[in-house]
Amino acid sequence: MTYTGVHDLGAVRQLWQLLEPVHAIVYFAPEAYEEAGALGYATDDRWPMYFAFRAAPLGPAEANLVNALFFSFSLRMVEHYLARTWHTALPARVLEARAVAADRSLQALLGERTASPDLAEAARLARRAAEAAHTAGRPLAAANSALPWPAAPHAVLWHAATILREHRGDGHLTALQAHHLDPVESLVLHSGAGAAPAASFESRQWSADEWTEARDRLAARGLLAEDGTATAAGVALRTAVEKLTDELASAPWSALTPQETSRLTELLLPPVLDIVGAGILPAQSTLGIGMKYDYEG
Which residues contact 116 (CB under 8 A, 6 or more apart)? Predict the structure, then answer.
């Protein structure tokens, strides 16, 4: 039976917070670096692997397309890392390596839990939501949804988490643009609202001048104070962005009842604690996962 009601936005957000670490292991786990290295990618930092693994579902996409869909990175950075990506390995081979990386990483992180009935149940529930995700206007979600489903439950969970996080991410870009925030402005305001220190966003490789100019534009709109922190208006705008993002991410969960989403939350907690406890994910997330937003205020 398909539930067709509307889920509480807090539940939608919590499910993202739990599924994001499941997806993200493929950009940080040692096994992922090994698989990327075997393809010929440099592994002294994670970006060659990140751009290859995340962009591969799109086919041999060029830098302008990847930059448009990833949004928060400077075009210079994307051009640098995409210059040799598909010369090193074709997208089909990258997708094979990505799948192996996800499989190996989760087996290493979760151990015997990968064969547990609870993980199999979580995978089934997450897959139902992922298969219910409409992908019109959601290019990264569509590209990942077109890939075949794996067989093993832990791999199914990873694939479902990937579709759902890209579905959410595609919607997030819509929300940012609806509130007239360009890529660098979105980072500057996110930092000013307390998501992470400005230094945490330096990896996106915007220049100091570009960052300062974005701060000036936001300040002129009354969104940032002189010290770079978000004003009340800035916090309100950022809250509106997050609320719209959660609203746009809620539709796939209509495939599950509120009881089933609560059950999935319960089932995801132990493996996610295993993943986070392993220490391979960044201690300081730039996604604002731990931030609280008052949608009723």
Answer: none
pLDDT tens column, 71-130: 999 999 999 999 999 999 999 999 999 999 999 999 999 999 999 999 999 999 999 999
Element (DSSP H or E) covering residue 107:
helix 91-110
Nearby residues of 226 by Cβ (< 8 Å), 6 or more positions away: 219
- CB count in 10 Å sphere of residue 115: 13
Q: How far apart are CA 100 and CA 104, in angstroms?
A: 6
Coil/strand/helix, residue 221: coil
**Which residues have a Cβ under 8 Å from the Cβ of 16 and sit 6 or more positions away?**
164, 165, 168, 246, 249, 289
From CA 256, how far away is CA 277, in angstroms rounded?
29
Question: Sign of the C-alpha dihedral, residues 187, 215, 68, 66?
Answer: negative
DSSP state of 3: -
Report d(CA 221, CA 241) in Å as an integer.
Answer: 16
- SS3 category, 73: coil
CB 35 within 8 A of CB 284: no
Residues of the chain with pLDDT under 70: 1-6, 284-297
The C-alpha angle with vertex 248 and arms to 47 and 177, in degrees rounded to 5, equals: 65
- CA nearest neighbour of 138 among 184, 175, 92, 94: 175
Q: What is the pTM of this model?
A: 0.94
Residue 56, both tokens: 């591969």
Enumerate helices (H) and strands (E) in the chain, giving the number of each: 14, 0
Residue 91's DSSP bridge partners are none
